[in-house]
Amino acid sequence: MENERKSNIIRVGSRKSQLALIQTNHVIDCLKNVHPDKEFTLVSMTTLGDRVLDVSLPKIGEKSLFTKDLEDALHNNTVDFVVHSLKDLPTSLPDGLAIGAVFEREDPRDALVLREDIKATSLEDLPEGSVIGTSSLRRTAQLRGKYPQLKVIDVRGNLNTRLKKLDDPATDYSALLLASAGLQRMGWANRISKYLPCSDMMYAVGQGALAIECRSDSEEILKMLAPFNHPETYCRILAERSFLKTLGGGCSAPVGVSTKLKKLDTNYQLTITGGVWSLDGATKISHTLEQTFEQINILEQIKNKPKHKLSPTDDGSTKKIKIVDTSDNNVNPLAELDEIIKTDNANCEELRSDEEIEALKKIFCGLKANRNVPVDVIQKCDDLGRDLANLLIEKGALDVMKVTQDLIRSSVVKS
What we know:
Elements: H1 2-7, E1 9-15, H2 18-34, E2 39-45, H3 48-51, H4 57-60, H5 68-75, E3 81-85, E4 97-102, E5 110-114, E6 131-134, H6 137-146, E7 151-154, H7 159-167, E8 173-179, H8 180-186, E9 194-195, E10 210-215, H9 219-225, H10 231-247, E11 255-263, E12 268-277, E13 284-293, H11 298-304, H12 338-343, H13 345-350, H14 354-359, E14 363-364, E15 367-368, H15 375-394, H16 397-414
Parallel strand pairs: 1-2, 1-3, 6-7, 6-8
Antiparallel strand pairs: 3-10, 4-10, 5-8, 5-9, 11-12, 12-13, 14-15
Helix pairs in contact: 10-15
């Protein structure tokens, strides 16, 4: 009885910040709706990135600033999975760990948050010398390159802390650059003065998406997460992470991306733009690539597969199936049907060859293969990011990144 009770308890790891807890509780609520028999226990903790606030992120000189403590808990089996902002996760994860699911992505763009007494409506309108706060090298480089008249200063802390600094009359900040998704999740969308288009500010790899990290051999958790592993988000994220992994970047270099997935007449087209900047923004290396592929989703496979006597639809049951109208611009073109995935998982596995089933065991840039996406599509997304990075490398991206990284290392040594 005791073992049975424990098997129903799922321990969920999270950072202690308000935003992290909101995101983690969102994931728990989604899982509770599908697994009402499970009890989800939240285990919160601080990470190195939370504890060290008087040093800019690149100068701390450590990887996995916001994830290592949570990953240690996974390794120690004190939690069953952890919820991350995906942009915080390195493209290579510790052995034995993997991203089991990426939830549907929020708006990945950056947002301009102006101090409330400032009447400007955009970065262009700000007076020369106005101070912009950000903790990101990516944002800093793009700001300096496009708006050299502005002054960029590092600002650390969670969203609450940074907004308080902006609102404090004793500080010099005129505006902050923040991820719009975080502001939306905190209920502070009213603070957004302007969403920055990707032509002005490419966003961070994975920005706007939530990642669920777990032990890579935890079949129970992986099956539980599968219905929430959002196909469109997964395809875009994989291309972005493959791009960053090939470059070898992270928070130690100004690297940005922009991705888009759209449905054509009969196919789907994934577009990715990637950029690398010098720290002063004077040098920019960027390129855009596209990949077109047929997307055969699980619903189509089930509809076209001859029914067999064990099919749930043959026994007179009244299972409800939600049909997605992809003509609605608010609906993602690769959105899968959770009901289908949950109830017909066994049927879907029968449709796969032995090679496909074996390929689904692979890990791509820390991501477990998404069972809701054909294996050949997963591979093409991975290849697309890698090809884009190699094009930028041919243009000299690594040399540009090395200069920035050397500057950061020298500043760490001096401090």
